[in-house]
Amino acid sequence: NHSWPRAKCLVKRLNRPTDRPLENRNRVVINIHRARRSGEAMDGDQPTARQPQGYVHLADNTKADSRALADAPAAAEKASTWPQYTKTLSVLAVALLSMLFGALMLFSCSMAYFRGRSAGPMYLSGDYDVCYYPDYSKKTLKTAYEETVFALLSDTREEKKFEASEVIYVNETFWVVCDNSWALGRFDRTLRPFSPDNRQIGDPKNEAKGGDSQWEALVYDRQRHLFLAVQEAVPLSELRKERKGHKALKGSEPESGFRGVVQELRLKGHGGKEGYVIDRECEMDFTFEHGNKGFEGAVGLRDTKGELYLLGLCEGNFCKGGKEGKRPGNGRMILLRRDDTDGRCQWKSMRTIPLPEEISFIDYSAAAIRGSRIAITSQESSAVWIGEMKVNKDGSIDPSSFDILPKGQIYNFPRDDECRVEYCNIEGVDFINDRLLVAVSDKMKSRGRQDFRCLQKDQSLHVFAIP
């Protein structure tokens, strides 16, 4: 037995050329594999205990030695080739795994893309997928500028919250109503903080009326120069008390339910510096089952004779609450005409206009028109649909054939840097021009009903650019 360095020296010595015949030479047979694994003896040796690493066996058996020497190069080549095989297999395995991962990523992106194409608008309102949509920049509004109501008013008149519910753009000015206040908000279009042009018109508390205003929609009548503020839903029991002798015919209305009320507001003094007065209040004859799912928006339209119609937007699908009211794609608008017969002011429903199924929103929060275009927003879906109405060239309508046409476009309100909804409470909207929209946000819902991110944008006015 020899140490491994000594064995290498012997191999070199015995491999030197010599004049002695092959059969008279001592040969070195090194079988490291057998020496390491089993330690068994070579030909001509007696079995011994396990041989140490680097075992060298000297033998005189010429035939065995010759065969071992002949096999040695092949064994050496095989031993030296095995690491190359291992390296090649490793590279192939890594390449195969990379290809598999790439295929899975491509499959996932393709599924997300086609899921978006097939799922329609509801896909756009998802929390994460929308940001990876191929047309994200073309289907998302861009914030132009915005400001909170608290920063706009130099005098809040002790108001601690502004539950903004509607905004309209009239004469270079934003007019805003809040469902918790009786004041009419007036804001300069620049949204400059603490500007003297920003103020509340009227008493926010309105002790004469009491409670909240419940204003959810605002329409400006340009012919009569007054505002029409729409209360979402008032209990029928209260309306009967206020009719002052004008009672509905027996069987003409349900025993219970809720109805909207239109209040005509006329400004006093220049720009309303002296407040406003309510000229009259007109009940709407459309009855809702739920008090919190009434008219959430309204726009004014005129027929060819110049008569004013109101197009009221129901908050819930099918104009209902509960589970049925949350079935997307079943939005409704009610076309109403004012009737003053018998000395009683009332807005009577003429037709129910179904919204295109492509407006697959969970709820509906506001509506606005500009020419033949119409915009409809959703608070819960954080999106706006912009499409076309069936109107005459001059913008007038035929009440019998008026319709809202399909093939519009849904735009998402901007997301935060984690692709989460941050405009959680869009309640009002109007066109500034063909490329700009103004919107208002309600107060964030309390008691954990909304994500904390919703606080950042609540009780504010926003201006968005349409792609």
CATH topology of the largest domain: Neuraminidase
What percentage of the residues does DSSP assign to strands (E)? Answer: 25-35%
SSE ordering: HEHEHHEHEEEEEEHEEEEEEEEEEEEE
What topology, given as strand order, has the largest sheet? 8-9-10-11-15-14-13-12
CATH architecture of the largest domain: 6 Propeller
Supply Rg: 42 Å
Low-confidence stretches: 7-14, 22-61, 113-126
N→C terminal distance: 87 Å
As a percent range, the share of helical residues equals 10-25%
CATH class of the largest domain: Mainly Beta
Number of helices: 6
Count of individual beta strands: 22
Estimate the mean pLDDT confidence: 83
Shape: globular
Would you kindly provide a brief summary of this structure?
This protein is α+β, with helices and mostly antiparallel strands. It has helices at residues 4-14, 32-37, 62-119, 121-124, 149-152, 236-242, and strands at residues 27-29, 57-59, 142-148, 164-170, 173-178, 184-188, 199-201, 215-221, 226-235, 258-267, 276-288, 295-302, 308-314, 332-339, 346-354, 366-370, 373-378, 383-388, 409-412, 426-431, 436-441, 460-465. The strands form five sheets. Strands 8-9-10-11-15-14-13-12 form an eight-stranded mixed sheet.
Describe this structure in words.
The protein is α+β, with helices and mostly antiparallel strands and 467 residues long. The chain folds into two domains: 4-83, no CATH class; 130-465, Neuraminidase (6 Propeller), CATH 2.120.10. 19% of the residues lie in helices and 31% in strands. The chain contains six helices and 22 strands. The protein has an eight-stranded mixed beta sheet. A four-stranded antiparallel beta sheet has the order 3-22-21-20. It has a four-stranded antiparallel beta sheet with strand order 4-5-6-7, with no helix packed on it. It is globular.
